[in-house]
Structures are given as structure tokens and as C-alpha cells.
Design brief:
Radius of gyration: 20 Å
Order of helices and strands: HEEEEEHHHHHHHH
Structural class: alpha+beta
Helix content: 25-40%
Largest sheet: 3 strands, mixed
Oligomer: single chain
Distance between the termini: 43 Å
Length: about 190
């Protein structure tokens, strides 16, 4: 019940990916229930067995396991999401209203800042980047061949980035991002 009540406050965690004929991946609302079950063999997220959700919950005694696809969890709202689920669970299970300032509850307005991509704030040029086809044409005209190799011949491209770990982790925390996401942003930039 707590997970489904949380849907009203965090609709962006109750989604599925769809693959239309144009080849672009799209995100849409997922009305199917999120899987909440006793811990067992792993289920594949974003598949039929997980109702195509990006998340699922499991429990084993007093332990709660939360599985979610990392690509959808950059920034701070994931902790707030979990606080809301636990708050609603405790409220319903024990019939109490715990004192929990800062917990985001269903019915509250979702501020724009909560759903904005924090990386787009850092790199305005990413937000205003031309369509992929224009970039490919521009790169080909300038003699850039890696993009054509990948796009047309599906030749894998590997990047090796070397950044001092302490600096990288500090920077990641300072911009409220995931260390796993930042290399992609740097490559895009």
C-alpha cells in the first residue's frame, strides 16, 4: 500500500520505457503495480516479470530490499522517495503519524527543481544541442570518423578517462550527481 500511495507524489519513478518504430526510447507512465514480494530469485527490471517497472521491493523478515535502475536515480530525490515509502508504511502498519519533518507526502506540489536534470543546469550547451543528425553531418564535414563508424557500421568505441579519484568524488558530490553519470556528461561536453 505504501509503495502505491507514493506513486501520487513521485510519478517519475512509476514509469516504463517504450520503443516506438522511430527507434527513439521514450518514457511513459506505468499503471501496473510495482512488485513488492518476499525476497527470492532476482527479477529483471524493465521486463515483463517486473511489470516493466524500473524498480521493485523485496522483504525478508525485518530487512527491506529496494531495487531500481540506476539511470533514473541521479540526485537527491531517491532518498526522499524512500523516506516517503517508509513513512507511509509505518503510518499504516502502526496507525501512527511519525514526526518526520521534510518527508514529501502525496498531495504535495512537486517543485520543478525536483524533476529537472541537474546536469543540464551545469552544461547549457547540452540542453541546446542540435539534433543528432545535425551533429553527425557536422562531424563528418569536419572529418570526424568515429561517429560515422559507430552509427553506420556499429563499430564499438571505447573511451578511457583518467581523473584523480578524490577530486572526482568531491566534484560529483558538489554538483549533486552520480560518479557513474558524470563521465557520460564529460564525454558529451
Amino acid at each position: 500500500h505504501a509503495v502505491e500511495k507514493t506513486r501520487m507524489r513521485y510519478p517519475y519513478y512509476f514509469i516504463r520505457l517504450v520503443f516506438p518504430e522511430n527507434g527513439e526510447i521514450e518514457v511513459e507512465e506505468n499503471p501496473a503495480p510495482v512488485i513488492v514480494r518476499k525476497a527470492g530469485p532476482s527479477l529483471l527490471l524493465m521486463s515483463e516479470e517486473s511489470n516493466y517497472h524500473i524498480q521493485m521491493f523485496e522483504y525478508d523478515g525485518r530487512t527491506l530490499y529496494f531495487h531500481i535502475h540506476h539511470a533514473f536515480t541521479d540526485g537527491r530525490s531517491l532518498i526522499k522517495y524512500m523516506q516517503t515509502v517508509i513513512y507511509l508504511y509505518v503510518s499504516e502498519k502502526y496507525g501512527i503519524t511519525p514526526e518526520s519533518p521534510g518527508v514529501r507526502l502525496p498531495g504535495e506540489k512537486i517543485p520543478d527543481a525536483e524533476t529537472e536534470d541537474p546536469m543540464l543546469k551545469l552544461f547549457e550547451e547540452v540542453k541546446n544541442m542540435p539534433e543528432k543528425t545535425e551533429v553527425v553531418k557536422k562531424m563528418d564535414a569536419d572529418g570526424g570518423k568515429w561517429d560515422k563508424q559507430y552509427m553506420e557500421n556499429r563499430v564499438a568505441v571505447a573511451y578511457f578517462l583518467s581523473v584523480p579519484e578524490d577530486s572526482f568524488v568531491k566534484y560529483s558530490k558538489d554538483v549533486d550527481s552520480s560518479p557513474a553519470t558524470l563521465p557520460l556528461v564529460f564525454m558529451q561536453k
